[in-house]
Amino acid sequence: MVNGYKPATLDEALGLRRDTDAVPYAGGTDLMVENRPGVSYLFIGHLPELRQIRADESFVRIGAAVTFTQALESDLIPAFMKEALRRIAAPAIRNAGTFGGNIGNGSAKADTVLIEYVCDARLRLVSARGERVLPVQEFYKGRKALDLAEDELIAEILLPKEGLDNYYYKKVGGRNALAISRVSFAGLVQLDGERIRHIAAGFGAVAPTVLRMRDLEERLEGKTLAQAREMIPEMLSLYGERMELTTGRVSAEYRKSVCLNLLGDFLATLRTSSASPS
Ligand SMILES: Cc1cc2nc3c(=O)[nH]c(=O)nc-3n(C[C@H](O)[C@H](O)[C@H](O)COP(=O)(O)OP(=O)(O)OC[C@H]3O[C@@H](n4cnc5c(N)ncnc54)[C@H](O)[C@@H]3O)c2cc1C
Fold first, then answer.
1. Closest Cα to residue 49, out of 31, 30, 62?
2. What is the pTM of this model?
3. Could you say which of 104, 139, 160 is where a domain stops?
4. Residue 203 maps to which CATH number?
5. Which terminus in the chain has less CB density within 10 A, N or C?
């Protein structure tokens, strides 16, 4: 049995996805820690089509095999995403780990995925049959459950080009740089003067998928910053009632209180210009 393929082109890779059971991988930082005897692998990390960072009129388009280090060095990647990238593990993992692998692993601890949720990013999936684009929130069906057909690959992450400047990001981990997130929080606000046009708040590493409650975010839209600050006790109580967190090495109650503290801090420090206090 062949235990590995290294296609020369994306088309060849898609043919192998269609015709074999080979598991795709790029950096291997998630996959190689698993012991899967008898599995064959499809290496895609070298494919030029998946290694580009580009921009079109509306989106920054990040190839699935772009590494975290490559993204940190690119002027096209928004500062909001770079906040999260800088806090991923140590340089060796950042040099090998990719955006596609971070998504493909299906974990709510994935740091780039939290930013993608809060930015309402889209994913472009490709197969020998064609391609489709869908919101990242729709791609995640649950813990390790992805809307990825057996013959598909994640090709690109589409981040909106506009409206990402006024953000907030905090990652609370057990062991600073080498920590996989225990709790992470990202917030984004878009303002018309003092009034909130759009707001997003996402929690990572605390539930089967990244947690966002769009209906609660909508309560703040149309309010002034001062009105939003007055609503903090009410918002914390609404989020608190709805949050059902998974228990990990740290208790669900502890994680919930960290989440609510981060949300409260985000709302209390909303301002008219860009700033992340982290
Ligand atoms: C010590 C250590 C520290 C870590 N710290 C962090 C951290 O701080 N934050 C964090 O978010 N992660 C962390 N990780 C996890 C990991 O590095 C990231 O999830 C990384 O993004 C995985 O990318 P990769 O290219 O190595 O994935 P791979 O291991 O190559 O693949 C991961 C999964 O995605 C699938 N996949 C890969 N590419 C595609 C594609 N294009 N289409 C479809 N499926 C695909 C694979 O089949 C596999 O299931 C850490 C890992 C280690 C070992």
1. 62
2. 0.95
3. 160
4. 3.30.390.50
5. N
